[in-house]
Design goal:
- This protein is of the alpha/beta class.
- The strands form 3 sheets. The protein has a 6-stranded mixed β-sheet with strand order 8-9-10-11-13-12. It has a 5-stranded parallel β-sheet with strand order 2-3-4-1-5. A two-stranded antiparallel ribbon has the order 6-7.
- A hairpin with a 6-residue loop joins strand 9 and strand 10.
- Helix 2 packs antiparallel against helix 4, helix 14 packs across helix 18 and helix 16 crosses helix 17.
Length: 471
């Protein structure tokens, strides 16, 4: 082990050639576009390395394929360009395959590269840790690293375990940045970057925040719609630039975004069938790695795959029914669904009130649902499943925009969600079906790809899906 570890450690210091190779697409020679969260990562890095601010440990969480590793290398590039201070990059998955702990690797860095202990270093440096949760003692090791390496900027990536598994001590030391699939505007910016590297297209600055305030925090429907009307010129200008200035079809972009390219890993893919196959491979890998940590056998793995496949055809979480279909005990079925939710494969929303129905499950990316359905229905999936994918998108946005505790499923037989903002909640419905008893809500929002322009009638704001996607 010493020889392989020594060789590994001798190559953990980052140089420009390594950065360039990791940030450049191997075939197009194009630099990967930065995600919006990179602005925040640059702020953290710059503030610490310039002034020694107390925030110096950041965790980036999210499921596979969202660009976490690329964000680490983009941060390395920023530090290299602006500060020229030492950067050390550790792939914790690779360390695990070598049967080396992160603690051992950091000790080796001090002994063989730095030739001194972290607490003896009085100048800034950066340590980047990829998939840190792969180390069984990651929490303790990170705490010790933070305490010993007081001049180090520490940025690590990981799954939801990075947030859920932190000790109280580490929680006080680490800032979590949770990343999600692309927003639609991020996808459009990346798409326009691929077409025209010098000119990425974004909506007007602040539009998303103002739209969020308008839709979810207005006191009345009249106020909300008046605020929406004030934003209309900027929204129309953005879409006009897409269609007229960039010669892109908005409907095609929305369809491609929802079905295939909301996950950044597939941005450079052109063939839809290849994306579907790759999505299935990504999902299987995510599932198998999570289940390996759950310590279950191969027979249960097949049953869990059947459970997920069934959930792709419905949003209803009926534990007893699912247990019968899959052949797993109800208690175990419920535990598996909870674990799938904690692994960020599913969002499970509770019913709004007791007796109003069952919990509902939505995929964290609509593309995952589509990929799971492809072996059953081919590439022309039925309209009812396309509608479920639109629900996935809405929930994906709401989970990013709002605290999960204020979001619930309205009732068993509707495609609607209760958003508990202000003193009286509002109702957000997906589609155009009428919803009863809206009078108990502050106001009612309908979102659909069949609505072409926003309108307002009887306390209900009707919103095009493409407008909602600008949140």
């Amino acid at each position: 082990m010493d020889d392989s570890l020594r060789l590994y450690i001798k190559n953990v210091q980052v140089n420009k050639a390594a950065i360039d190779s990791r940030l450049t697409h191997p075939f197009s020679a194009m630099r990967y576009p930065a995600r919006l969260v990179f602005v925040q990562l640059k702020r953290y890095a710059g503030t610490f390395l310039e002034s020694g601010s107390t925030l110096r440990c950041v965790g980036i969480t999210g499921f596979r394929g969202l660009g976490k590793t690329t964000l680490l290398w983009q941060t390395a590039n920023y530090v290299w360009q602006h500060f020229r201070q030492p950067i050390y990059f550790f792939n914790v998955t690779a360390l695990r395959s070598m049967n080396v702990s992160l603690h051992e690797a950091l000790d080796a860095l001090q002994e063989w590269v730095l030739e001194r202990r972290f607490n003896q270093i009085d100048t800034p440096f950066t340590i980047l840790l990829d998939e840190v949760q792969e180390d069984p003692d990651w929490c303790k090791t990170l705490k010790n690293l933070f305490d010993e390496a007081r001049t180090a900027l520490i940025i690590c990536t990981g799954s939801q375990e990075l947030e859920a598994g932190r000790s109280a001590d580490l929680a006080n030391r680490m800032r979590i940045e949770k990343i999600y699939p692309f927003r639609f505007s991020e996808f459009v910016a990346a798409k326009t970057y691929i077409d025209d590297r010098a000119n990425m297209l974004y909506p007007a600055a602040g539009l998303s925040t103002q739209l969020k305030e308008c839709l979810f925090f207005s006191d009345t429907a009249d106020t909300a719609f008046a605020s929406l009307a004030a934003l209309t010129p900027r929204i129309q200008a953005y879409y006009a630039e897409i269609e007229t200035g960039r010669k892109l079809n908005i409907n095609d972009l929305v369809q491609r975004y929802v079905s295939y390219q909301n996950i950044p890993n597939f941005l450079f893919y052109k063939e839809k069938y290849t994306i579907t196959d790759s999505l299935l491979g990504l999902f299987t890998r995510m599932l198998r790695e999570d289940i390996e940590r759950w310590s279950v056998g191969p027979e249960t793995l097949q049953q869990i795959e059947r459970l997920i496949l069934h959930l792709a055809t419905t949003d209803e979480v009926n534990i007893s029914k699912l247990a019968d279909i899959v052949g797993i005990a109800p208690e175990r079925t419920e535990d598996i669904i909870d674990r799938l939710a904690s692994s960020e494969l599913l969002y499970v929303l509770p019913p709004h009130s007791k007796g109003s129905g069952l919990p509902k499950a939505f995929f964290t990316s609509p593309s995952i649902r589509r990929a799971l359905l492809a072996p059953l229905y081919g590439h022309k999936i039925p309209d009812n499943f396309r509608f479920m994918m639109m629900e996935d998108v809405i929930v994906m946005y709401l989970q990013r925009l709002l605290m999960g505790s204020i979001l619930s499923a309205a009732s068993e037989n509707t495609s609607a969600f209760v958003v508990e903002t202000r003193d009286v909640p509002l109702l957000l419905e997906v589609g155009l079906a009428s919803v009863k008893a809206v009078q108990k809500f502050r106001y009612h929002i309908q979102v659909s790809n069949q609505i072409t322009e926003p309108s307002f009638e009887n306390g209900c704001i009707r919103l095009p899906l493409r407008w909602f996607l600008l949140l």
